[in-house]
């Protein structure tokens, strides 16, 4: 039975009939007609362990049997504490606490508010501005939408609630000039950020917010070498916080647990979600530097952001199990080695395709940028809705890929994102 016209669920897209997913196993999902779909994108880079993982399901069952939910203004739980310990053990240097929320947008909202409240607590309430990047995505809630740089998503909700200046993303394929090296290009971007900080007044800026590896707007944008080190130095010089959004690229997706490890930088706050719970439960988190948490502890003693489902016990149990499986089964190394094989396959299949302008990524996080012609790098007319047609065609073939794009003035273009589960075999990747 296709859903949508006959459904009472208010679906996000009202002009499409959706198949009804009834079961999932390994890297595929089966619909009510018995058709199987190979999940080459992990939904939206979520299902890092694929579907139906027995260890995660057992952990969730065990937690439900013991305790499904206890409100965090009354209790902490063993499982939330254990998950926080595990995450902090492997977090970037200096991180001391994990703040659990229900997903990526909420993690970004919490990080933005944490950063603002931090400056209020230390007596710098004049800091009111965030700086973020164009062609970025940080979520759909109003704060996250305000820092995000996807013009199409933002447009009808303007003016958004917080002050955000946008600078260029790190988009080497389109924006690096022929006469500059990757490093020089990165320095040029840092110089632009510096100029924006000066314009706003460095004493007025709260934080720079960026996805370490861009994801859901421009089809995977890895940073050039040295870019984030330059950003970090600049932020430090002005006492500005660095918030890295690793909701999509974090938790092993790029081959290291945190993508920022590969950049040699430590953020003040990092947001994680999708691969944290692998889709088994809705969960996200903000990992915070000790310095920030200590300020709250010694100051107001309260982060003003409590939501009802913070640190939900079953969500924490699912995430704990997912993270334990990743460590136990050596999946980070597997992401790196299978990622290399996957890259080779993608290059073999598409590097001379007339409409694939660029193939870029890290680990098991890959994007294909679609162009009318490789030399001009021109995007397709957004009215063609190419990305939507690709998705439909792929689904007809029993393949899930995550296409995005559309707005040319907002500079998105059409892209296809591939983020297969870490457990995908070489044969499945092929
Ligand atoms: N941040 C990034 C980098 C994302 O890719 C996403 C979702 O794609 C979000 C935030 C929002 O996460 P959620 O959809 O879980 O609210």
Task: Summarize, please.
The protein is an alpha/beta fold and 430 residues long. The chain has helices at 42-45, 54-66, 78-89, 104-121, 142-147, 151-154, 172-175, 182-200, 227-238, 274-277, 290-298, 313-328, 331-350, 386-396, 426-429, and strands at residues 21-25, 28-31, 36-39, 95-101, 129-133, 163-167, 205-211, 241-245, 269-272, 284-289, 356-362, 365-370, 399-400, 402-405, 414-418.
- Count of beta strands: 15
Task: Give the helix tally.
Answer: 15
Query: What is the CATH class name of the largest domain?
Result: Alpha Beta
* H/E element sequence: EEEHHHEHEHHEHHEHEEHEHHHEEHEEEH
Major sheet: size, sense and barrel closure? Answer: 7 strands, mixed
List each distinct ligand once. pyridoxal-5'-phosphate
Kindly report the CATH topology of the largest domain: Aspartate Aminotransferase, domain 2
- Supply Rg: 21 Å
Number of structural domains: 2
List key phrases describing it.
binds pyridoxal-5'-phosphate; Aspartate Aminotransferase, domain 2; four-stranded mixed β-sheet; seven-stranded mixed β-sheet; Aspartate Aminotransferase, domain 1; alpha/beta; globular; 18% strand; 430 residues
């Amino acid at each position: 039975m296709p859903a949508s016209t006959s459904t009472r669920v208010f679906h996000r897209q009202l002009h499409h009939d959706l198949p009804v997913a009834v079961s999932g196993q390994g890297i595929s999902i089966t619909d009510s007609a018995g058709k199987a779909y190979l999940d080459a994108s992990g939904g939206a880079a979520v299902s890092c362990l694929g579907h139906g993982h027995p260890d995660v399901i057992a952990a969730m069952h065990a937690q439900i049997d013991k305790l499904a939910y206890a409100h965090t203004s009354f209790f902490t739980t063993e499982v939330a504490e254990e998950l926080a310990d595990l995450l902090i053990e492997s977090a970037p240097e200096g991180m001391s606490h994990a703040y659990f929320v229900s997903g990526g947008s909420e993690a970004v909202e919490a990080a933005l508010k944490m950063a603002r409240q931090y400056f209020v607590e230390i007596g710098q309430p004049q800091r009111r501005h965030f700086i973020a990047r164009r062609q970025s995505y940080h979520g759909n809630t109003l704060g996250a939408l305000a820092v995000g740089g996807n013009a199409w998503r933002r447009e009808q909700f303007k003016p958004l609630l917080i002050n955000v200046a946008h600078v260029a993303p790190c988009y080497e394929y389109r924006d690096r000039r022929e006469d500059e090296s990757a490093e020089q290009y990165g320095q040029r971007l840092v110089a632009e950020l510096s100029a924006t900080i000066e314009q706003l007044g460095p004493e007025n800026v709260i934080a720079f917010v960026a996805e370490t590896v861009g994801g859901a707007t421009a089809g995977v944008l890895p940073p050039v070498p040295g870019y984030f080190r330059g950003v970090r130095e600049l932020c430090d010089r002005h006492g500005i916080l660095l918030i890295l959004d690793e909701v999509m690229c974090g938790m092993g997706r790029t081959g290291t647990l945190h993508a920022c490890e590969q950049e040699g930088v430590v953020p003040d706050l990092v947001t994680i979600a999708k691969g944290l719970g692998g889709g088994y439960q809705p969960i996200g988190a903000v990992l915070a530097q000790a310095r920030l948490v200590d300020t709250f502890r010694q100051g107001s003693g309260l982060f003003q952001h409590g939501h009802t489902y913070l640190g939900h016990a079953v969500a924490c149990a699912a995430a704990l199990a997912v993270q334990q499986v990743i460590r136990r089964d050596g999946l980070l190394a597997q992401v790196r080695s299978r990622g290399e094989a996957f890259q080779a396959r993608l290059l073999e299949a598409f590097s001379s395709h007339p409409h694939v302008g660029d193939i870029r990524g890290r680990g098991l996080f890959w994007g294909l940028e679609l162009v009318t012609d490789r030399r001009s790098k021109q995007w397709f007319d957004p009215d063609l809705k190419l990305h939507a047609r690709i998705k439909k065609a792929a689904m007809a073939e029993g393949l899930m890929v995550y296409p995005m794009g559309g707005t040319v003035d907002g500079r998105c273009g059409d892209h296809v994102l591939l983020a297969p589960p870490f457990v995908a075999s070489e044969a499945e990747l092929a």
